[in-house]
Amino acid sequence: MAYLELENLTKHFRRRTGLFTPPEIVKAVDHVDLSINEGEIIGLVGESGCGKSTLSRLIMQLLMPTEGSVVLQGKRLADLTPEEIRKRRRDFQMIFQDPYASLNPRMTIFSTIAEAVLTRHPDLGKDWDKLTAQVSLLMEQVGLDSRYIRKYPHEFSGGQRQRIAIARALATEPKLIIADEPVSALDVSIQSQILNLLRHLQRDLNLTMIFITHDLSVVRYIADRIAVMEKGKIVELGESESVFKNPQSPCAQVLLNAIPKIQF
Amino acid sequence: MPLLEVRNLKTYFHTREGVVRAVDGVSFDVEKGETVGIVGESGSGKSVTCYSLLQLIPRPPGRIEGGQAMFDGKNLLKLSEEEMRKIRGHKIGMIFQDPMTSLNPYMKISSQLIEPLQLHKGMGKTEALERAVAELDAVGIPDAKSRIDSYPHEFSGGMRQRVMIAMAMISRPEIIIADEPTTALDVTIQKQVLDLIKTRQEDLGTAVIFITHDLAVVSEVCDRVNVMYAGRFVECAPVEAIFTEPRHPYTQALQKSIPALQEKGEDLYTIPGLPPDLTKPIGGCAFAPRCEFAVENCAHGWQPKLVETGPNHWVQHCRGCVTV
């Protein structure tokens, strides 16, 4: 059985165009069906504005769908009470594009990660030493020196901040990670480090991952399957190598042609 | 004679932690109509190099410690603020990474576009407006005549970057400094913007200094490339030579780390370690601690100098691993 299933998922936004004109309907996500297996990395690509971020927010239950549903391990998320959804949300975590904006500048690395650990293990709140050990362990898992545990985000470089964001996401022991352009804001050499890290973690922890990006060369490397989105619909879905070598939809072809190539 | 001749530029930042040698003796030429790339990781000093030329470095803590930049018979580094203002945006234009922060959100596109024309060329408002519409048309903004009265937030990211290009080009500068102009855009828009910069440059004969960390972009737009590391150039060469026969280990490492060139399944190549702390004096080759070819000789003595190893191909002559 698929781990996560999107059934006919739809999100429409209403946009007011004027006082007396009827509101315009923006179909951000339009009847999307997708099933994702456990331990799979699925790459979600498309131009900006194609609805990939809205889709991820629907999966995270940060937005309510207009129609359709998200089924996680056979359970329809819309049927759960808000309380249960909050509990469930520990199982899925997000990593955002901008590690400068997604970390609280007034919290040390310890408090940032510990807060997430406590949602999974509230009892650790009484056991300071164990909590510290757990945070150190997470930091080492993502390749950060645990001596920096009391430092603030601004003391780290972009790549290191993204590692902190990854450690925070892992702290709740999630099963599904949605990474929304996790390397777009980073230098090429740092990008590779983060991609390697995500792939190793995925393999070691058997994570299911949705990797959102507009960069096909990155996604070819990391994803098992690629879903191409255009105007709220999935227009192409296939093994990553075959989408890359032989794109069927015009949208995928445009994306492929746009990758800057080394011409020598 | 080159259009711009930078010699031994040094920009240091005097901070509480010590003196940061952000740019430490950089020399390059820009010829009329050519595109010169400056490539490097964040913090390597590529932006500081260009901002120094326009005296846009915050002072203090920054200070230009030495060198000269000859443009139009004048040394840019020694100009007074008043003289500089006649060059910025007139003779030398800029395109920044983030168009949202470099456009004024409270001003209509039209007033921002005609400002340089009124200021530098003394044009009247109607004439300037006509030119502005033509310029927006040239950068591919549909329906330029009515869009010109919009505010920046009414445009998408790619469109805003087009407006920035129009604004930089409108006074027909001789040089444009483009600081990561496509890093914030997605690939399809990036391609459009790169193509646009190229065609406008060909039409108008403008020289471009292109700052980026992305080697693939460099290969698409640049004629010459300067690879920067820890405040100095480690290799300067025509673009083809940079890709076909890179001589410096850092250039080679940068190329190996492009994900598109690697096989699926194996680990991506990464450059180990971090760039050096620029407050401390660097002995020998700055890249030595991260270099896979480094031998003991590399990290000692004076910093290696650039030597010419091929036609117009200069490389830092590291004693340990670069053979000339």
Your description of this structure?
- The complex is a heterodimer of chains A (264) and B (324).
- Chain A is of the alpha/beta class and 264 residues long.
- Chain A has a domain at 107-173.
- In chain A, 36% of the residues lie in helices and 25% in strands.
- Chain A has nine helices and ten strands.
- Chain A has helices at residues 52-59, 82-89, 109-120, 128-141, 158-171, 188-205, 216-222, 240-245, 250-258; strands at 4-15, 24-36, 41-45, 67-72, 75-76, 92-95, 176-180, 208-213, 225-230, 233-239.
- In chain A, strand 4 and strand 5 (75-76) form a beta hairpin.
- In chain A, helix 3 (109-120) crosses helix 4.
- The mean pLDDT of chain A is 85.
- Chain B has 324 residues and is of the alpha/beta class.
- In chain B, 31% of the residues lie in helices and 24% in strands.
- Chain B contains eleven helices and twelve strands.
- Chain B starts with a strand and ends in an 8-residue tail after the last strand.
- The interface between A and B is large, with 34 and 38 residues.
Largest interface: A-B, 34 and 38 residues
> Tally the helices of chain B: what do you get?
11
Radius of gyration of chain B: 21 Å
Measured distance between first and last alpha carbons of chain B = 28 Å
- Biggest sheet of chain A, strands in spatial order? 6-7-8-3-9-10
Count of DSSP strands of chain A: 10
Rg of chain A, please?
A: 19 Å
